[in-house]
Amino acid sequence: MTGAPQAPLWSALLAAIWLGAGLSSAGAAAINLDSESCQDFLNANGADVETTLAWLDGYYQDTDAPAVIDLDALRANAAKLKAFCAAHPETTVGAAAESLFGHE
């Protein structure tokens, strides 16, 4: 890939760096959103949850969205996902995010 990253990728990368700056080695090495249950997600360490939420926020941005991290929107979307996961603990994180934020 040449040139600057696309806006959603760039936003996700910046958010992940910002939130992940304090990650410890105790965090997960990989998070599979298609298999991790909402319950496991809610029970994960805070850094993994925050990084995942930031990544999801960037992933679900429009492809032509500006490379801006809207922290208020990120927090609002995080609250929506956490509430959905609390109500549907057996649903995978990927399915929950797609249900809430999926592209039409």
UniProtKB/TrEMBL annotation:
InterPro entries per record: HNS-dep_expression_A/B
Pfam family, one: HdeA
Name of the featured protein: HdeA/HdeB family protein
Species of provenance: Methylovirgula ligni
Domain of life: Bacteria
